[in-house]
Specification:
Blueprint lengths: L5 H4 L7 H13 L1 H9 L12 E4 L4 E4 L4 E2 L1 H12 L4 E6 L6 E5 H17 L7 E4 L5 H13 L2 E4 L6 H11 L1 E7 L2 E3 L2 E3 L1 H9 L7 E5 L13 E3 H6 L10 E2 L3 E7 L7 E6 L1 H14 L7 E4 L6 H13 L3 E5 L10 H9 L3 E4 L1 H9 L3 H4 L8 E5 L5 H11 L5 E5 L32 E5 L11 E8 L8 E2 L3 H8 L6 E10 L5 E6 L3 E4 L2 E4 H9 L4 E11 L3 E10 L8 H15 L8 E5 L12 H9 L16 H7 L4
Parallel strand pairs: 4-17, 6-7, 6-8, 7-14, 8-11, 11-12, 16-17, 16-18, 18-19, 19-20, 29-30
Antiparallel strand pairs: 1-2, 3-13, 4-5, 9-10, 14-15, 15-23, 21-22, 22-24, 24-25, 26-27, 28-29
The structure holds 5'-O-[(S)-ethoxy(hydroxy)phosphoryl]adenosine.
Length: about 650
């Protein structure tokens, strides 16, 4: 147990464990009272008429009904009035030492002009807009501009392939796409416009492609469809009225991977999401007016939405946007940004910490890091050794390490320590946020009470930041989250609650894997593989990977009628196939060509066996008597890539 640091507790919003426990009890006993108080932190055009309605089993959830507000107004206008000269966004460009500071007053002008550009391209309240941008300030301007006019943004991570982007544009029916000529990530240039051209080719839904200039690279522009963003912005004035939205009007859709089928468009609405992200950002990172807050995520993921843009800006915080990568020009980059900008709160994924940790302490210790107070992590379990290094070396033993568990669907942080209140245990996300009721259930759905137990992690009741539906497929929303364990929201994670009631996330219990902090469905990768002419069948599993946390291991059966002259080239072609269909982030680390898969007599693949082979743990397979052909296991071990 690592005790709370007195210098942090002294000025914290929640300053002791007893304080936390008291507030937590209150939040559970009277959720309506608790959340209506929290909602007052936002500016409402019309206050909510009720706090909360839910029929969990049907996946019907509403918060703050009758309330009217605008997310952009809350993030921009109200701060531009009261603190116009405060820095809203510091953009840390790809090259070290290059920064752009944008005040709240400037942000208001940038967002206003962007909103007018969208309108002049025909975007109206309720329309969807695709954002496929690198980490440049325009990504935040565009998100906020959509929110301002009531349009629904769909940010697509700029590492996704043309096919993946096309699928998302079509699913959400986006008439306007924002992109850039190229993106920069360390030494690499990413040809974004070219990818968009491939993605939208022949798509009649896409009316306009707005192109930001990042590198000045020569790119093809299709007249009547493609426009330079800067030229469009120059035509518009900065004044653009806000649309007052109902609390339950959609704010954005964000695609994420599930255990089956194609990625789903997780939909978040306006009132609940804004209340929850502002509230959790303030408490989990113990935000005060003088903080410089740096979340190193990408805007293409939920962490970027909730904790680079909406939460911090709603709180009037100075938020840092980082264009580069942690190892450019070397593994000391994060800490240089921390010193340059006097960052007090830093938030990243364990995979990034593992990568820079491997490079050695000197990259850390050459920076002073004296401004750091809080160090957050998110996205996957953090190994206790890595936690300890983060705490002792990066934080000099002076900063609080905050391991935050949550999901795209939860909208905001669900389980995490509070810096001034919760003693930490390295590797545990510790205790639930106010208003959050984690429940462990066995495979039959019975609640497992008490401490010192493990089970499937569910959440009882509802919270304001909860996703409301899957775009265009509410039935899938219900069946994915609310039917396996009736009465609860099912997270897909396994979890242990220890003797002290602390939560330890043990990883996914479904066919989702977290690879370098990116969430991927094994089924998606399998579909990409079998779309290759050589592949008859594929099974993908995760395996422990030193840097990425989980690596990707694919077992592929080749078609009888396909003659592979060069097996190495075939493996290379299968890898490329996944890169092309999904993204380089989904590229298998190992591909094993096999003649058969371990299937039960009913035809179900026993993934447990594949996981063991992928992990190189082949000494004991337990009971394999239900396999149709148990000899297959020996054959798989013999040709294993481990
Ligand atoms: C995993 C990211 C352990 C978990 C915000 C979850 C974590 C999935 C943690 C959601 C953590 C996230 N400890 N595991 N602190 N945070 N996860 O939707 O498996 O990209 O279900 O949201 O990441 O990933 P997503």
């Amino acid at each position: 147990m690592i005790p709370v640091k007195p210098h942090i507790a002294k000025r914290a919003h929640v300053h002791s464990l007893a304080h936390y426990e008291g507030l937590y009890r209150e939040s559970i006993a009277n959720p309506a009272g608790f959340w209506s108080t929290q909602a007052e932190a936002l500016t409402w055009f019309h206050p909510p008429e009720s706090v909360h309605q839910a029929r969990i089993e049907e996946g019907e959830i509403a918060w703050f009904s009758g309330g009217k507000l605008n997310a952009c107004y809350n993030c921009v206008d109200r701060h531009a009035e009261t603190q116009p000269d405060k820095v809203a966004i510091v953009w840390a460009a790809n090259e070290p030492g290059e920064y752009r500071k944008i005040t709240y007053a400037e942000l208001a002008r940038e967002v206003g002009r962007m909103a007018n550009v969208l309108k002049s391209h025909g975007v109206r309240r309720g329309d969807r807009v695709a954002i496929y941008l690198p980490m440049i300030p325009e990504v935040a301007f565009a998100m906020l501009a959509c929110a301002r006019i009531g349009a629904v943004h769909s940010v697509v991570f700029a590492g996704f392939s043309a096919e993946a982007l096309r699928e998302r544009i079509l699913d959400a029916d986006c008439a306007v796409v924002l992109t850039a000529d190229e993106g920069l990530r360390g030494p690499k240039r990413i040809p974004l416009k070219e990818t968009v051209d491939d993605a939208v080719e022949g798509l009649s839904v896409v009316r306009s492609v707005l192109v930001a200039k990042r590198t000045g690279a020569e790119v093809a522009m299709t007249p009547g469809r493609d426009y330079w963003l800067a030229e469009e912005l120059a035509k518009e004035r900065a004044t653009c009225p806000v649309e007052w939205m109902d609390a339950e009007d959609p704010l954005f859709v964000l695609y994420t991977s599930g255990s089956t089928g194609k990625p789903k468009g997780v939909l978040h609405t306006t009132g609940g999401y804004m209340v929850y992200t502002a509230f959790t950002h303030r408490h989990v990172f113990d935000i005060h007016d003088d903080d410089v807050y740096f979340c190193a995520a990408d805007a293409g993921w939920i962490t970027g939405h909730s904790y680079i843009v909406y939460g911090p800006l709603a709180n009037g915080t100075t938020t840092v946007m980082f264009e580069s990568v942690p190892n450019y020009p070397d593994c000391g980059r994060y800490w240089q940004v921390v010193d340059d900008l006097e960052v007090s709160v830093f938030y990243t994924a364990p995979t990034a910490i593992r990568a820079v940790m491997r490079a050695g302490d000197e990259f850390v210790t050459r920076a002073s890091r004296k401004s750091l107070r809080i160090l957050g992590t998110v996205g996957e379990p953090i190994n206790p050794e890595v936690w300890t290094w983060y705490h002792d070396v990066v934080g000099n033993g002076q900063a609080a390490v905050i391991d935050t568990w949550w999901q795209t669907e939860t909208g905001g942080i669900m389980i995490a320590p509070l810096p001034g209140a919760t003693p930490a245990k390295p590797g545990s996300a510790t205790l639930p946020m106010f208003g959050i009721r984690p429940v462990l259930v066995d495979d039959e759905g019975t609640e497992i009470k008490g401490n010192g137990v493990s089970g499937n992690l569910c959440l009882a009741g509802s919270w304001p930041g909860q996703s409301r539906t899957i775009l265009g497929d509410h039935q899938r929303f219900r069946s994915t989250y609310f039917t396996r364990f009736p009465g609860y929201y099912f997270t897909g994670d396994g979890c242990r609650r220890d003797e002290d009631g602390y939560y330890w996330i043990t990883g996914r219990v479904d066919d989702v894997i977290n690879v370098a902090g990116h969430r991927l469905g094994t089924a998606e990768i399998e579909s990409a593989l079998v779309a290759h002419e050589a592949a008859a069948e594929a099974a993908v599993v995760g395996f422990p990977h030193e840097i990425k946390g989980t690596g990707i291991y694919a077992f592929v059966i080749i078609r009888d009628d396909f003659s592979a002259e060069d097996p190495k080239a075939l493996v290379g072609a299968l890898r490329d196939q996944v890169r092309r269909v999904i993204s380089p982030i989904a590229t298998p680390d190992a591909i094993q060509i096999v003649s058969g898969l371990p299937k039960t007599r009913s035809g179900k693949i026993m993934r447990r066996i594949l996981r063991q082979i992928a992990a190189g743990k082949t000494d004991d397979f337990g009971d394999i008597s239900t396999l149709a052909d148990p000899t297959i296991v020996e054959a798989l071990i013999a040709s294993s890539e481990r």
